[in-house]
Amino acid sequence: MAADSPTGESPSRGKRADAQRNRETVLAAAAEVFVTSGVDAPIRRIAAHAGVGMATIYRHFPTRADLVTAVYQHQIEACAEAGPSLLATAGSPFDALRQWIDLFVDFLVTKHGLADALQSDNERFAALHAYFLDRLLPVCALLLDASVEAGDIRPGTEPYELMRGIGNLCVGRDGDPRYDPRRLIALLLRGLQRPDAS
What we know:
The protein is mostly helical.
C-alpha cells in the first residue's frame, strides 16, 4: 500500500490544500488592495494582485460582501493570535502592547468602507462587529493586565475604552495626508505609562 495514499484520499486532500492556499492568497491580496483602494476596488484588481483568475475568487466568495467579511475575519484572527505571541517574545509586556496596537491600527486602516460595503446586510455587519469584540477585547485585556502587573502602566484602563479611543483616532486618517494617527496613539500610550517606567 502506498504510504502517501492509504485510502485513496490524498489527491482530494491535495486539492483541499491547494484550495486553502488559493483562499489565503486571495484574502491577503484583497486586504492589500482594500488599503489602497477601499472595499469597492474592482474584483479583477484583487484577482490580478493575487495571481488568480476571477473565477477562483467567486468560487470562494460568491459576493463582494462574502469577500469583505472573510478578509476582516481573517485579519481579526491574525490580530487575536498575535497578542499572546508578542507577550511571549517582546522585551516587556508594554512593548508587546505597543506592537499589538500597531497591528490593531493596521487592521483599522483596512476597514475603510466596511460599513458601506455591508450596509445592506445589517445582520452580517452586527455579527462581524460582535466577533471583533469577542476576539480582540480579551487579547487587549491580557496585554493591559500584563503591563500593569509588570509596573509598566497605571492600572484602570479598560480594554474597550482603549480600543475605542484608538479607533476614534484612526477615523480622521481618511483623505488627509497631514494627519497621522500613529503619532497621537504613541502619545496616548506614553500617557498610560507610569512616570518612573523606562
